[in-house]
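Re: that backbone. Tokens:
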């Protein structure tokens, strides 16, 4: 019972992160299950089965808060489902000994990508421009495949790619990616069911993760409007890197003084990424504040001109008279 309560708490925290950042439910949950000794295929299968419920709840909540672009959802969901089914089938056919370092390597890489990506400012300068299907289709295919084989990865691949494009508001990127993940999780679960059978799913674990995720989904959809994605992304990226580094170091047989040195270097990189993320967040907020001040200062002048056309006309007449040397009329 204690273990199930812990898993429910993990599901709750993971969904809070995922719903407000657009990623990391699968990464967080799969990482914990791997640390607990669950086989990679069973861990990924259980997480994806739980995600069917959590992503449905998250999608509905994001839709109600206006965070979903349905055009983007439809264009990445189907390719994502195809990639997820293929990835689940592949992972089901690999032995646990081979799959454990492979899965940890994928999670480690995605965590490092989060650190690098969120240590820099997020682009929003092209918001409103259309995203083309030839970009969204391959993105969904790759993200779905990585998601199933790594036990998580749909959000870490899809969300940063859409944020980097600068063509969507961050909250709509997160809401659209979370909503499309419902289809991806369903396809991955079907692939695992075919490859592993029903015994491949740890149903008590699925139930605990699902309960925690369902409780957190509505709150996460609201938090996306107020929580700085910059800081949250760098934080969760460091946690994923350090946790999966443990599995990778063990698989390579590194021991002695090398291990603490590796951990120290990774921790230093995490700290540096957090510092850069805070600086990028402050710089972004300063630019927005300056733009708001400039817009506010320009607004009264425009209003005065619109409300007093006679004054503006008189000013123009005086300027013309001054330019021709004619005395100003009294």
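Recovered sequence:
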């Amino acid at each position: 019972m204690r273990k199930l309560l812990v898993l429910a708490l993990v599901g709750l925290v993971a969904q809070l992160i995922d719903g407000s950042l657009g990623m990391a439910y699968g990464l967080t949950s799969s990482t914990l299950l791997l640390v607990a000794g669950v086989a990679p295929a069973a861990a990924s299968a259980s997480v994806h089965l739980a995600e069917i419920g959590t992503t449905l709840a998250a999608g509905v909540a994001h839709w109600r808060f206006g965070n979903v672009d349905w055009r983007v959802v439809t264009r990445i969901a189907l390719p994502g489902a195809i990639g997820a089914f293929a990835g689940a089938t592949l992972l089901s056919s690999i032995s646990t000994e081979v799959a454990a370092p492979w899965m940890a390597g994928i999670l480690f890489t995605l965590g490092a990508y989060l650190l690098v990506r969120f240590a820099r400012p997020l682009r929003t300068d092209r918001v409103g421009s259309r995203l083309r299907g030839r970009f969204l289709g391959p993105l969904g295919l790759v993200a779905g495949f990585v998601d199933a084989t790594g036990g998580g990865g749909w959000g870490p691949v899809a969300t940063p790619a859409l944020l980097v494009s600068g063509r969507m508001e961050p909250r709509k990127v997160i809401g659209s990616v979370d909503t499309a993940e419902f289809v991806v999780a369903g396809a991955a679960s079907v692939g695992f069911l075919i490859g592993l059978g029903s015994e491949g799913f740890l149903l008590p674990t699925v139930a605990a993760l699902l309960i925690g995720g369902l409780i957190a989904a509505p709150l996460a959809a609201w938090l996306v409007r107020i929580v700085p994605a910059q800081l949250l992304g760098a934080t969760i990226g460091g946690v994923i890197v350090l946790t999966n580094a443990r599995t990778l170091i063990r698989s390579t047989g590194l021991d002695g003084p090398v291990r603490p040195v590796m951990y120290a270097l990774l921790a230093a990189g995490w700290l540096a990424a957090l510092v850069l993320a805070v600086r990028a967040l402050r710089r972004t907020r300063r630019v927005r504040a300056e733009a708001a001040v400039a817009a506010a200062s320009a607004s009264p002048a425009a209003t005065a001109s619109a409300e007093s056309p006679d004054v503006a006309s008189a000013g123009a007449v005086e300027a013309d008279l001054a330019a021709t040397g004619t005395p100003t009329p009294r």
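The chain is about 80% helix and 0% strand. Residues 311-330 have pLDDT under 50 and may be disordered.
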